[in-house]
């Protein structure tokens, strides 16, 4: 016997076609996903730090960060809870800019956030123009519940990898699972391969 | 979103789930009572992925909170119809009793209430966010050990879920505040208004008691309630949240 008799695809998903990863639906809203309360981070107290596996560090204050070369990516984003949103517009600093000239043999990175959140990625996925530290969404300062003052933006992976309230990136010579990755979610999280859960 | 759990080691797989009965909580919200042969059990607060398949093979998946504690092969979901939604209108109006869908789960291990954890419990619900919190309250009612209080903010009486059960919770020792925001029943002394920080303080527990706080509802509601709890001195680590957007479902 077939499942869900009488269920049909909506025009919206039909029209999205190949641009929508498998198992995703299209939304015009911007839903929020967080495990706990939204941390309060003041721009005046904000700083961003990159640290290599040997302990070499770089930090930027808010003002210094805003003085770095800025980019305005327009990207599709995909949440593991199955919504996707097309053509989101951001402003921020390319992660390449932050890592430029650093001496590292790292293979992985752990992004960590105000409030204690962490997420891990292969370093490859942060460089080459694939990732940003974004502070502006849709032309306005990034709202706190969406990760403001600044969040990581890695649109080619499920959006939990785009750590909200990001505070720094630690470069590592081995993989170290982050918050959701230690809690049943996939280590890498490619939406095109539906890498949602650790058992997938 | 949350972690896998559920007292077994095998990864979840898609399982057929037959709708054996239903119950309308209100005109927009239907509880589905599903029979899932071999269901491994779950914890209050966990959810399942529900998969629908169209004649042309197209599939749509959404997550729904489990509305009741584990009970053999029986699984209860409560679904509020989102008028523009892809899945919820079908689950509310299209799925006939006797038909089958597919479920994957249980999923989630963070927004979970464990009866053996110590401390009082505060449940703060916004709208249909009451569903996973009701699973917690129902589990608590089965063996009420530590104090439990629930605050349930909702727009109007015609959207109330689980009304009779909530009315009976105080006789089991739980505190329940229904906070209507737009329109209240005539019998209600509280005037319709947004839930305030003072009400959360008055109907919850003191921060010094370090209660477990669970907040579930639309994003704006969760932001406001969690923020109020922090201002009242509750540790962020004691506040677990689950948000849903006004979308898709």
UniProtKB/TrEMBL annotation, chain A:
Residues 36-180 form the Oxidoreductase molybdopterin-binding domain. Residues 8-18 have a biased composition (Basic and acidic residues). The lineage of its organism: Bacteria, Bacillati, Actinomycetota, Actinomycetes, Streptosporangiales. Pfam families: Oxidored_molyb. Residues 1-25 are annotated as: Disordered. Coiled coil: none annotated. Transmembrane segments: none annotated. CDD domains: arch_bact_SO_family_Moco. This is Sulfite oxidase-like oxidoreductase. It comes from the Bacteria. InterPro entries: OxRdtase_Mopterin-bd_dom, OxRdtase_Mopterin-bd_sf.
Automatic annotation (TrEMBL), chain B:
SUPFAM superfamilies: Ferredoxin reductase-like, C-terminal NADP-linked domain, Riboflavin synthase domain-like. Transmembrane segments: none annotated. PROSITE patterns: FAD_FR. InterPro entries: Cbr1-like_FAD-bd_dom, FAD-bd_FR_type, FNR_nucleotide-bd, MRET, OxRdtase_FAD/NAD-bd, Riboflavin_synthase-like_b-brl. Residues 12-113 form the FAD-binding FR-type domain. Pfam families: FAD_binding_6 (PF00970), NAD_binding_1 (PF00175). Keywords: 2Fe-2S, Iron, Iron-sulfur, Metal-binding. Its cofactor is FAD. PANTHER family: NADH OXIDOREDUCTASE HCR, PROTEIN RFBI. This is FAD-binding oxidoreductase. It comes from Actinomadura fibrosa.
